[in-house]
Specification:
Blueprint: H1 2-25, E1 44-54, E2 64-66, E3 69-71, E4 82-91, E5 97-105, E6 112-116, E7 122-123, E8 128-137, E9 153-160
């Protein structure tokens, strides 16, 4: 019986030793190696600000800008005076942009009124859009108010489609 067990164990070891090389003969190892690169470019920026028109006696100043901000200092003389600034935004990137947010805030009780023309909702890669900011001394004012200065805050946010 002991001899039979030994033979059986030897036979199983032999079978297992034959199975391992046979099994690995049917295995294959594959490796993957690669690189992924994003070739698109996001670049939407302000490229120009200019004075389009102004009432006689007004001082439009020299508007300044960076690629993401505009600054101007409008000086108005009398009710009805206005100054119009044209802002140009260009999509210098390779991705189309879409207008996500357009916020325009002022002091509603002010004698100085701000308004804008509509800005394009889609700005294709390589294209330019413009809009106007119009600053007006309210022509309904009949006496000088305490505060003669108002401040505008405008935020334009473009994002990917």
């Amino acid at each position: 019986m002991k001899k039979r067990k030994t033979i059986m164990i030897c036979f199983l070891i032999f079978i297992l030793s034959m199975m391992v090389p046979s099994y690995s003969a049917y295995m294959a190892k594959f490796e993957f190696d690669g690189t992924a690169t994003i070739t698109s470019k996001w670049d939407v920026e302000i490229v120009d600000v200019e004075v389009v028109s102004f009432s006689d006696g007004c001082d439009a100043g020299t508007p300044t800008y960076t690629n993401n901000s505009v600054s101007f200092d409008a000086k108005l003389n009398k009710p009805g005076d206005s100054i119009t600034y044209k802002v140009s935004i260009e999509n210098k990137g390779t991705l189309d942009a879409v207008l996500k947010n357009f916020i325009f805030k002022t002091n509603n009780d002010s004698i100085i009124k701000f308004e804008t023309t509509m800005i394009d909702e889609k700005l294709k890669a390589g294209n330019l859009t413009t809009f106007n900011i119009i600053v007006t001394y309210d022509n309904k004012i009949t006496e000088m108010p305490e505060s003669t200065t108002d401040h505008i805050v405008g935020i334009i946010e473009y994002g990917q489609e």
